[in-house]
Specification:
A alpha+beta; B alpha+beta; C alpha+beta; A: alpha+beta; Aldehyde Oxidoreductase, domain 4; 20 helices; 29 strands; B: Ubiquitin-like (UB roll); two-stranded antiparallel sheet; disordered C terminus
């Protein structure tokens, strides 16, 4: 049945949820023992190095590896020719979206053409990383350099250099007839915008631009691949999803899925950027060729140049409102680049641009555009931040022009249960209004802000969040401890939030559950850690596992008390019948003592639909008119979490997303030179916030229960990055009167705008 | 009868009609019924025995992974939407379920 | 490959000897030769602090120190913070304050924070932010890290009494 089950139990108090236990993997993480992929060391391990294109766009004329293979200690060299022929399987489809295998393989090792500076062309495995670098330098590649393009609007022009000559614009199944860089044209329409704009007393239309930015995880991509003598391929990976990684590797190498075992190591950040594979198939090919395990680790410049930033974009947003501040119509035109291969994030951008508002008439056009940059990937609420940067500033302008407080304007028009989005679906119970009220009542909003060049901004943000498949299993031990094996790679502490939900269900303490993240052999299929799904969906699996374990415990108690299981009452982890009772621990001890069947449980779920998380951010900034530097004086993030399982980690998601958004607003960008090469591919010049750049990030967690989870949990991870650039831009406008429509609002850009104004 | 919201790019096939009520207890049946009334619409929504690449179906405002197999109630609302996270190519935010 | 150099040094208060090539960084030797993988490689050019160790009393990016420079020096890594199985107050405060999410920057922060508090036992918030500005974190937004260091400072001061 295609509707979400109403699972919310409506509990008003919890034993475990809402508390802040120390995370179960804590000791290992603070003592340096936690094993990340680059920490893995195996006997006879070789080290790999990738040869990359120095050009933004070129045809590969020849690759000569003869000098490299001569070097003692060099074990293998691979190129795209080592991949199986994937042309005939170029589109494997499923009920959820295709994967173009040929493109995926070409992004791992270029076929025929290089499409961005840093595009991998060959790879070498050697006795140590320095030798591998030496060998890589000896691989000679001949290129025919082609013209290139890195700005989305330029890439859409008729005379733009073309990346794929066979690409035609897809308009929901209708293909264009001309070669192009425009892969996709999306359209959404609701109501009648001509009439809607006629009803408006005021209309504001603005254009916006954003630069490519990177997720910026501190751990570079890393993998170790071992093609074993039993023909099984074992991969240790820094990945957001072991099963997702396995699927991609198996398909690229054309081997059965279970021939590949993926062990997800601890992962040093992902934010959407560690979903696509880059190194794993290449390391596997090298390992198969040389008969040794091969470790491949990216350098930081490779991460910037050759993994997946979020789109650079151009947006035009127009909104109309009555003089009383009621929105009547909206129109948006969005062009997002997707880099070297089709399949960017224009769709969620289009669906999110007006998602915070009740908008009776709207039209959105969106374009997915190729250019000579690395293929874009998801970056935390992909596409929504760009869209909010545009929409939230136009909202702010309308409010200002009408003399209405920006928070009140948003309250007047806020999306709520029953609001229909421009793409069609209607929201169930959601918490934007509650977040706006929390903002209004916050200490931050109520504190006056005074001083020259200071201003306060507010903005709203939304992300859908997903469910999808999760599995887990658990065993009850004789001392009452429950070990839990679940399949969600833990990027931010989720093994604890999942363990807490199991503990809550069983009526035991969080410390009485010992969670671990399983590999693809040892746990049931679990979709990746992303889409803000983990605490929700894997938590739901843990809840069902709890019910399974509890039922078995009931059966064992019934055996001990010689009665029917239904006669055993269970409440808060205590099993009782006729005046006799046993705690969970005591019962577990008895089961072990009496040699009854061990209690081993399992659950798998695949919840559909979205958990819909809204957030509102407030920022106070001070602008230095002499330098254009922006100081964030105070920042508050407010978000509806449904139910905060572990409030510290919910706060952490809100704070982390806010600071990423502040970096996106004020400094971060891919800077391309005239040859379309990235010139700032290091942490020195790709300027992410340090702790000196930001204040404390205050957080307010709102809890409007999600009907599709027993404890009301909503996903929380992505929404926090949506509002910040708009929040900061709105604050800068209040501080200076200048409306900054281009990201990043770096000091030179703001200084220039201030100079032009005065 | 279930109501299908016609995606904007397909409204030229339905002569501008944005919402169409058709019989069907599965998405497949609903698509076939649409094809009866608006020939040519099925090739835009499907490829072979699956939804077209990059499409997902939402029933009663809930995105489902079951595609053409998903069941539809007599009072259901059906939307055909892009898969969140991008169309072709490697899946992005992880909102696309894995392929078989 | 050039001839290896024999280095005698002290790591976490214990005498250590190793062989290394002149071109190897201290970070590489700590991780690959001594198997102390707590220090992480985030950028390999001194811009993220994930490789921070205390080198003869001074916090450094070990990716910018050649391994041969460790001759006669002392090196303290995250593996040396806990004492006979007991977490250092900084480690405890990070855990209790949820000052880590993915944890990859954590060893660098712990070592840098220890160096900071060794030199300045009563830092202001600004002192902490300035002192830790060499360490990048992408997950936490720094709020809980700063608060954990503040808590650790308080605890260390009360232990000193």
């Amino acid at each position: 049945m295609s509707h979400t089950d109403e699972l919310y139990l409506g509990k008003t108090s919890y034993q475990v949820l809402g508390k802040r236990p120390v995370r179960h993997d804590g000791a290992d993480k603070v003592t340096g023992k936690a094993v990340y992929a680059a920490d893995v060391q195996l006997p006879n391990m070789a080290h790999g190095k990738i040869v990359r294109s120095p050009h933004a766009h070129a045809r590969i004329k020849s690759i000569d590896v003869s000098e490299a293979v001569k070097i003692p200690g060099v074990f293998a060299v691979v190129t795209a020719a080592d991949f199986p022929n994937l042309e005939s399987r170029s589109e494997v489809m499923g009920e959820g979206g295709p994967v173009n295998l040929a493109h995926m393989a070409a992004n791992c090792l270029a076929m025929g053409k290089v499409l961005y500076k840093g595009h991998p062309v060959a790879a070498v495995a050697a006795a140590n990383v320095h030798l591998a670098e030496e060998a890589a330098a000896k691989i000679k590649v001949e290129y025919e350099v082609l013209p290139s393009v890195t700005w989305v609007l330029d890439a859409m022009k008729d005379d733009a250099p073309l990346l794929h000559e066979d690409l035609r614009t897809d308009s929901m199944g209708k293909k264009g007839d001309r070669p192009t860089n425009v892969a996709l044209h999306l359209q959404f329409e609701k109501g009648n915008i001509a009439e809607g704009f006629q009803q408006a007393d005021i209309v504001v239309e603005r254009e916006f631009r954003t630069a490519s930015v990177h997720q910026g995880y501190i751990e570079p991509h890393a993998t170790v691949a071992l093609w074993n003598e039993d023909n099984r391929l074992k991969i240790w990976a820094s990945t957001q999803g072991a099963f997702n990684c396995r699927q991609q590797v198996a398909q690229l190498l054309q081997i059965p899925v279970s021939q590949c075992l993926v062990v997800p190591c601890e992962i040093g950040g992902g934010f959407g950027g560690k979903i696509a594979v880059y190194l794993e198939p290449v390391a596997a090919l090298l390992s198969r060729k040389c008969g040794r395990p091969v470790k491949l680790v990216m350098q930081r410049n490779e991460v910037f140049e050759a993994t997946g930033p979020t789109p650079g974009s151009f947006l035009r947003v127009k909104l109309g409102a009555t003089k009383h501040g009621k929105l009547t119509a909206g129109e948006a035109w969005l062009a997002y680049d997707c880099g070297a291969f089709p399949g960017g994030v224009i769709a969620p951008g289009c669906m999110c641009v007006f998602s915070c508002y009740e908008l009776p008439n709207a039209r959105v056009d969106g374009f997915d555009v190729l250019d000579n940059k690395p293929k874009t990937q998801a970056y935390r609420a992909p596409g929504a931040t760009q869209a909010a940067f545009a929409c939230e500033q136009v909202i702010d302008e309308l409010a200002e022009a009408l003399g209405i407080d920006p928070l009140e304007f948003r309250l007047k028009n806020a999306a709520s249960e029953g609001t229909r989005r421009v793409d069609g679906p209607v929201y169930p119970r959601v918490g934007l209004v509650e977040c706006l009220h929390a903002a209004k009542n916050s200490d931050h909003w109520k504190s006056p802000l005074s001083g020259a060049n200071r201003g306060r901004g507010i903005a709203a943000g939304f992300w859908f969040n997903i469910g999808l498949a999760s599995s887990c299993s658990g065993s009850v031990h004789g001392d009452g401890i429950v070990t839990l094996v679940e399949g969600s790679t833990d990027i931010g502490g989720t093994r604890t939030s999942i363990a807490m939900q199991l503990a809550e269900t069983l009526g035991i303490g969080a410390a009485d559950v010992l969670p671990q993240v399983g590999d693809t052999d040892s746990v049931g299929f679990t979709f990746l850690t992303g889409g803000s799904r983990t605490t929700f969906a894997t938590g739901l699996a843990a809840y069902k596992l709890g019910l399974d374990l509890q039922a078995q415990m009931q059966e064992r108690a019934a055996t001990i008390w010689e009665c029917e299981p239904a006669a055993v009452e269970v409440k808060n982890g205590v099993y009782s019948r006729n005046g006799q009772s046993l705690t969970f621990k005591e019962l577990a001890g008895k089961i072990s003592e009496l040699g009854l069947d061990p209690v081993v449980g399992r659950a798998s779920v695949s919840p559909e639909g979205s958990t819909n998380a809204f957030g509102v951010h407030i920022a106070d900034v001070e602008v230095d008119p002499e330098t254009g530097k922006v100081t964030v004086l105070r920042y508050t993030a407010i978000q509806d979490a449904g139910k905060a399982v572990h409030p510290s980690y919910v706060e952490g998601q809100m704070q982390g997303g806010a600071v990423q958004g502040i970096g996106w607003a004020l400094n971060e960008e891919y800077f391309f030179d005239r040859k379309d090469q990235m010139r700032n591919a290091s942490f020195l010049d790709y300027r992410m916030p340090t702790c000196l750049d930001v204040p404390m990030i205050e957080t307010i967690i709102v809890e409007v229960p999600n009907p599709s989870h027993p404890f009301g949990v909503r996903g929380v991870g992505e929404t926090p990055i949506v509002a910040p650039p708009a929040t900061i831009a709105n604050a800068i406008h209040k501080a200076t009167g200048v409306r900054m429509t281009v990201l990043p609002i770096s000091p030179p850009a703001l200084w220039k705008a201030l100079s032009e104004k005065s | 009868m279930p109501v299908v919201f016609i995606p904007t790019p397909l409204r030229d096939i339905t002569a501008g009609t944005a919402e169409v009520a058709v019989e069907g207890s599965t998405v497949r049946a609903v698509v076939d019924a649409l094809e009866q009334r608006y020939p040519g619409i099925k090739t835009r929504l499907c490829r072979g025995d699956s939804l077209a690449p990059g499409l997902q179906v939402s029933i009663d405002h809930v995105m489902t992974t079951r595609g053409l197999r998903a069941t539809v109630r007599p009072d259901s609302e059906v939307h055909f939407l892009p898969v969140i996270g991008g169309g072709k190519g490697v899946r992005c935010s992880g909102t696309q379920p894995l392929i078989e | 490959m050039s001839k290896k150099v024999h280095v005698t040094t002290s790591v976490n208060h214990e005498p250590v000897e190793f062989l290394c090539e002149p071109r190897q960084s201290l970070l590489e030797v700590l991780r690959d030769t001594l198997r102390l993988t707590g220090a992480k490689e985030g950028c390999n050019n001194g811009n993220c602090g994930a490789c921070t160790v205390i080198f003869s009393g001074v916090p450094v990016n070990s990716c910018l120190v050649l391994a041969v420079e460790a001759e006669g020096a002392t090196v303290e890594t995250v593996e040396g913070l806990a004492d006979h199985g007991h977490l250092h107050p900084i480690q405890k405060c990070f855990l209790e304050g949820a000052a880590l999410q993915c944890g990859v920057c954590t060893p660098g922060f712990l070592v840098a924070a220890k160096a900071l508090l060794d030199h300045n036992p009563d830092p202001t918030e600004h002192d902490i932010r300035f002192g830790l500005a060499n360490n990048l974190c992408r997950c936490t937004g720094y709020d809980k890290i700063v608060k954990a260091v503040q808590a650790a400072a308080r605890e260390l001061q009360s232990l000193a009494k």
